[in-house]
Amino acid sequence: MLGYVNKTYLCSIFAFNLELIYIYNMIKVSDTAKKKVVELMSDDGYDASSDYVRVGVKSGGCSGLSYDLKFDKTQEEGDKVFEDNGVKIIVDKKSFLYLIGTTLEYSGGLNGTGFVFNNPNANRTCGCGESFSL
């Protein structure tokens, strides 16, 4: 027979495990994106081994939301920090849920050169791939 289990305890275990799931599935970085990130960080005076790629979502673009990607040396309060393929990524609290499961890739083909966000949460994306909607 099972004994009494405190509901608060069960909720805290669930929340902790949910956080681990988010961290594991947050943002993946492809090999080509990693190479380009390291190259661009070095060109801009950042160190890929200690500095961060800040990824966010902001209002705008032809589909309603657009991606924001920049380099950063510091974390802000409330930021989530992840690492994949040797790239340290910071996501602000507001953008966190929009980006779960996203893969950052780099395209250098005939259709254009730049970073591409493959976001499984996006219901619609624009032709340029820089904006999306849920």
TrEMBL record:
GO terms for biological process: iron-sulfur cluster assembly. It comes from the Bacteria. Signal peptide: none annotated. Residues 27-130 form the Core domain. GO terms for molecular function: 2 iron, 2 sulfur cluster binding. One of its GO terms (cellular component) is cytoplasm. Pfam families: Fe-S_biosyn (PF01521). SUPFAM superfamilies: HesB-like domain (SSF89360). Belongs to the HesB/IscA family. This is Iron-sulfur cluster assembly protein.
